[in-house]
């Protein structure tokens, strides 16, 4: 059923859902990142190198995610001390550092990129990962750590005074998000079968941001809805393809004006 | 009576402004102890230092004989000191019950591993939700758990904040102007709640403007004026203290 063109759309949609969740977790703790493309690149390159040297796909995906998570913690340690525009600049800088690193890193092909991966990624893999991530996000929303992150987002001083370990909540949010971006990158590398650093630049990070801002973070349906709108609209309305960024720019302004919490707002608290 | 909290020669300087100057006082275990004083006397600053939200410039604070000056607020909370805020600081995005659960969560919180366990095995008996619900019942908000906090009146928000502090089962409860904005009958309800809290074995340190509320409840009063302790004793003595009358009661009553 999902083969050829629509199969490909479905897989890119799934990868985008993962990228949306990669930003959803940091955002629930009030951390904004414009560097998720960097974590995706780390997962993509690491898994590509590993499967090409004969490692089973699922282990390579896991290691790609873990390496991204590790770099998430490294970036997170300075990031937890700053907020707002400064945090955006820091994560933006991180994304660029990763991109330029892979542009010049001869071991992974430098500017000519890396190709020849086996086509391991299929819809079953991507759909399972999306389903699992959604379940984790849903459980997380009503688990202690999820509550703590929302509390930190709402009022850091009060959260800490109520016993929340703010540093741990923020670092966990960053690391979990980076892990998911790394997994998304691994799926991406084994679907496009060729990666170079340009594919993980600012626009990739901005896409993730667009998904989450459009969908909102009030509950885990938000990132899915955001990714769906951005991925599927240009496919259904072909004429929009050339006007993609213009259309989403306008949509972003509309959401910011009329639904600042995103398209999917809190279900439980609005009864 | 043994002292549960000892404040020893605490000073706090904000730039050129000395908010607290060599403040010392002791809070006896099991008491309702009030800190009063005119606006800008340093009452909230003192509470912020005790709860670790800010660090003193000099001096130290000790809880059950253990010095903890400069400790992190979440660690201090873990020792058994919980608080509310003068300007309500509840968490938007969480329901009333979830707000209170942040307080009860802290009790079972033992690091990342315990977070993972909590994630995998939800809804354990006697969990955070049950404790939070009990705390809400304690302040008379037992039926409002599912509401959003911005649907509540300011007075109910204050009650939720007290519940959130109680949910961690503290030994010392710090209340910063809990009667702010309350009508006389609401103040009376609050008086009952605070007495009930004391009977449950919790020591209460109260900062308050509302004189009738303080005089009905407090068993011990420390009076601050311009960052200094000008009186310290039982209400009857404090009430008659000439320094207090000229600094505070004389001007407001």
Features:
heterodimer, A: 271 residues, mainly alpha, 11 helices, globular, B: 253 residues, alpha/beta, Rossmann fold, 6-stranded mixed beta sheet, 4-stranded antiparallel beta sheet, 40% helix
Describe this entry's structure for a reader:
- The complex is a heterodimer of chains A (271) and B (253).
- With 271 residues, chain A is mainly alpha-helical.
- Chain A contains eleven helices and two strands.
- Chain A has a two-stranded antiparallel sheet with strand order 1-2.
- The model of chain A has no long low-confidence stretch (mean pLDDT 91).
- Chain B has two domains: 1-80 and 171-189 and 202-253, Rossmann fold (3-Layer(aba) Sandwich); 86-169, Rossmann fold.
- Chain B is built from ten helices and ten strands.
- Chain B is globular, with a radius of gyration of 18 Å.
- The mean pLDDT of chain B is 90.
- The chains are: A mainly alpha (271), B alpha/beta (253).
- Chain A binds chain B through residues 139-140, 142-145, 147-148, 150-151, 153-155, 157-166, 168, 172, 218, 266, 268-271, and chain B through 51-53, 72-74, 77-78, 82-83, 85, 89-95, 98-99, 101-103, 105-106, 108-109, 111-112, 115, 118-119, 122, 128, 146-148, 164-165, 168.
Question: Layout of SSEs?
Answer:
The complex is a heterodimer of chains A (271) and B (253).
Chain A: H1 4-28, H2 36-52, H3 57-79, H4 84-104, E1 114-115, H5 123-141, H6 144-154, H7 156-161, H8 166-192, E2 194-195, H9 202-215, H10 221-236, H11 244-258
Antiparallel strand pairs in A: 1-2
Chain B: E1 3-14, E2 17-28, E3 32-36, H1 43-50, E4 58-63, E5 66-67, H2 73-79, E6 81-83, H3 96-108, H4 112-120, H5 128-138, H6 154-166, E7 172-176, H7 184-199, E8 203-207, H8 211-217, E9 220-225, E10 228-233, H9 235-240, H10 242-252
Parallel strand pairs in B: 3-8, 3-9, 6-7, 7-8
Antiparallel strand pairs in B: 1-2, 1-4, 4-5, 9-10
Helix pairs in contact in B: 3-5, 3-6, 5-6
